[in-house]
Amino acid sequence: MAVLQSFVSVHPDSHFPIQNLPYGVFKPQSASPPRPGVAIGDFVLDLSEISSAGLFDGPLLKNSDCFLQPNLNKFVSLGRPAWKEARATLQKLLSATEPTLRDNVVLRQKSLLPVSTVELLLPVVVGDYTDFFTSLHHTKNCGLIFRGPQTPVLDNWYRLPVAYHGRASSVVISGTDIVRPRGQAHPIGSSTPYFGPSLKLDFELEMATIVGPGNELGKPVDINNAEDHIFGLVVMNDWSARDIQAWEYIPLGPFLGKSFGTTISPWIVTLEALEPFACEAPKQDPPPLPYLTEKVSRIYDISLEAHIKPAGHEDSGVVSRTNLKHLYWTLTQQLAHHTINGCNLRPGDLLGTGTVSGPEPESRACLLELTWNGQNAVPVNGLNKKFLEDGDEVILTGYCKGNGYTIGFGTCSGKIVPAAP
Ligand SMILES: O=C(O)/C=C/C(=O)CC(=O)CC(=O)O
Ligand SMILES: [Ca+2]
Ligand SMILES: [Mg+2]
Asked: Where is the active site (predicted)?
C-alpha cells in the first residue's frame, strides 16, 4: 500500500510526517495570542485559522471553539471520537491529493508557518503532575544505590505502580533553562548537612501521559476504559538533584530534589499515531489484582535517547538508548491505579512514567545509574562526565520507525545555568 503523503514536503527522517500530526501550542509572534497547532514537516499548521475558515466540518467539531483556545485543555477533554474526527479532517486537508488547503494560497500563507519562526509553549495547562516509578531496572538500580543489596526492590513494587505527587508549577517547555537548585545534602561520612548548590544534578529520561477526559471525584476509572482517558504522550525530563533527594526523601518521598523543574517536549503525539507501534506488555508475576488486570495489556515500542551537549561544545554525545517497552506497569495501569481511591484526574494532567531504564548498561536512563552515583564516569565527546555541570545541555528524544516514515516526539531539551547566589 502506498504511504500517505502530504502536499507539504516532509524529509523522510522528519519526526512529523502526515502519519503523526502531533498537537502543540504556539505564538506566531511574541505579541500574538497562543493558539493550537499541529506539526507537519518543518511547519506548524495553525488550527485557529483552520477552525475560523470552517474546515473542521465534522459533526463533533463543527460548532466547537476548542481550537480558538490558548491551550489544548478543551480539545483533550472532548474524548476519542472528537480526536479521531480532528485527525481525519487534518489528514485529509494536508494530503497531497486534496486541493482545499493546497490550492488556497491565502489560507496556506496564513495557516502554515515555518516552525523555526514561531514560539512553542506548553501545550496544556498542567493542573496536576504525578511521577510513577515503573521500570524494574531503574527501581532495582536505585534500590542498590540508595538502600543497599538487602532488598533493592520492595514487595509492594510488584503489586502496584508506585508514584509520588510532583509539582505542576515548575513543569516547563523544552528549551527553558534550568537553574541549578540549592538545598541541603548530607555526604556520606559527614556529621552535619551541607547547604549549597546541588553537586549531583541529574536528568531522568521519561515519557508522560497527557490526560484527556477526567473522572469525577469518587468515581474510579475502570482499567479496561483507561485508554479513553489518555490523549497522548510527550517525552519528559524529571530533573533530579541526587544529593538533595538522598537526604530528604525518607520517609515521605521526593520533594525539593525534584520540584525545581520538569521539562516536557512541545508536541503531544496521540495514541492514534502510536497505534502501529503498540506491542504486548511484559508478563507480570505475581499477577496483578483484578482492578489492575487488563483484557489486553499493551505498551508502545518507542526508542528513546538521551544526549548531553557539554558546556562550550558544538556537538552532543549520546549517553543512553532505551525503549518505552521496557516498562513493567502499563500506562493504563498507572492511570487506573491513580483513580482507584476515588482521586479525580483532570484534562491536561501529566503522568510521568518514571525513568525508562532498560536491562542493558547503555539503557540506564539517568546519570545516577550510568555512573553508579558518581563512582564511574561516562564518556561524552572526549570528556568524563559524572553529574551535570553548569552550561551542560541535556537533549532527550523519542521516535518509532514505521514502514517508510518515522513517528517522532521532537526534542525535550534544557540547559543548566548556575545556582542563585
Ligand atoms: O529509589 C528511589 O529512592 C527513587 C528514585 C527516583 O529518583 C524515583 C523517581 O523519580 C521515579 C522514576 O523516575 O522512576
Ligand atoms: Ca522521575
Ligand atoms: Mg522534576
From this structure: 138
35 and 171 co-located in one domain: no
Look up residue 24 and give its amino acid: G
| 58 & 159 share domain | no
| Ligand 1 contacts CB of residue 238 (under 6 A) | yes
Q: Which domain holds residue 269?
A: 129-417
Q: Is 229 a catalytic residue?
A: no
C-alpha cell at 221: 476509572
pLDDT tens-digit series, residues 85-107: 999 999 999 999 999 999 999 99
> For residue 379, which of 307, 293, 297, 328 has the smallest C-alpha distance?
307
Is 276 a domain residue?
A: yes
Per the domain annotation, does 12 fall within a domain?
no
**Do 115 and 166 share a structural domain?**
no
Ligand 1 atom with the shortest distance to the CA of 352? 13
Same domain, 292 and 193: yes
Ligand 1 in contact with 146 (CB < 6 A)?
A: yes
| CA dist., res. 328 & res. 90, Å (int) | 35
Ligand 1 nearest atom to the CA of residue 246, by list position: 3
What ipTM, to 2 d.p.?
A: 0.93
Indicate if 47 and 170 belong to the same structural domain: no
Q: How remote is the CA of residue 42 from the centroid of ligand 3, in Å?
A: 29
> 137 with 46: CB under 8 angstroms?
no
Does residue 5 lie in a domain region? Answer: no
Quick one: 113 and 153 in the same domain?
no
Give a yes or no: residue 14 inside a domain: no
User: 158 CB under 6 A from ligand 1?
Assistant: no
> How far is Cα 84 from Cα 94, in angstroms, rounded to an integer?
15
Give distance in angstroms: CA of 54 to centre of ligand 1.
47
Is the CB of 354 inside a 6 Å radius of any atom of ligand 1?
yes
Distances in Å between the alpha carbon of 329 and those of 223, 298, 336? 12, 10, 11
